[in-house]
Write a structure and sequence with these properties.
globular; two-stranded antiparallel sheet; two-stranded antiparallel ribbon; alpha+beta; 6 strands; 9 helices; 228 residues
Length: 228
């Protein structure tokens, strides 16, 4: 009965643990961060405080549990569908897609860029970098895994600038605030993210093992795939 259950629990209770911190959540990740608030104002983005501050209670509340779920349930390769057809799809936990959707909607993947008349991407005016950095900073406290494709997308837009024709094709879909998790070709999606691969066959994800070297050449550098 209930009395026996309580007694059993008391039997195994040895002492109170008072040298561990209490649970962090719930808290307001913006209101409690004085340096972040001061930086937002100091760097000219006080007008955006309401939209940045709105994520504070979320980052320090419900998002904490979702962050744990996204990291406990690892991505799973689905090489084949139920009919035996090759798909090479990777299945992510819904919590991961939740974070992707939130971050894309907030523009963390591309808000520092804007469309030109030619559908190309040009740098957004200041303080776009500040607003994005503040929101990105809070997101990083909750779940950093999804921020890899988010920040790669933002960086890759700059690399596309050297190919204006390609940038004009891709920019409208990249800069979309609609996250599209469907496993489809980019031209069939309402939004897309980008990835950059910069490694060597012996390196994998450990870029410290890369041996590529660079030597000054005129105003730039010559890059060769071996150690100088």
């Amino acid at each position: 009965d209930m009395m026996n259950v309580v007694s059993l629990a008391d039997h195994f209770r040895t002492h109170d643990v008072d040298n561990q911190p209490p649970p962090l959540a719930p808290y307001d990740a913006y209101a409690t961060d004085v340096p972040l608030r001061e930086a937002l104002t100091r760097d000219g983005a006080a007008w955006a405080e309401a939209q940045v501050a709105a994520y504070g209670p979320i980052a320090g509340g419900e998002a904490m549990a979702l962050g744990v779920a996204a990291n406990e349930h690892k991505p799973t390769l689905r090489a084949y569908d139920q009919f035996g057809h090759r798909t090479d799809d990777v299945e992510f936990h819904p919590a991961y897609h939740h974070f992707m959707g939130e971050s894309v909607a907030a523009g963390l993947h591309a808000s520092t860029w804007q469309l030109t008349r030619n559908n190309d991407a040009a740098p957004a005016p200041a303080p776009a970098q500040v607003v994005r950095a503040a929101r990105f900073y809070m997101a990083a406290q909750v779940e950093t895994g999804h921020l890899c494709p988010i920040t790669m997308t933002r960086a890759a837009v700059g690399a596309l600038a050297v190919e204006p024709a390609l940038a004009a094709k891709l920019a409208p879909t990249i800069l979309s605030r609609r996250y599209d998790a469907r496993f489809l070709p980019w031209w069939e999606k309402t939004g897309m993210t980008l990835g950059m691969g910069m490694t060597e066959k012996q390196g994998g994800t450990d870029v410290r093992t890369n041996t590529t070297g660079a030597q000054p050449q005129g105003e730039g550098y010559a890059i060769v795939g071996h150690k100088w």
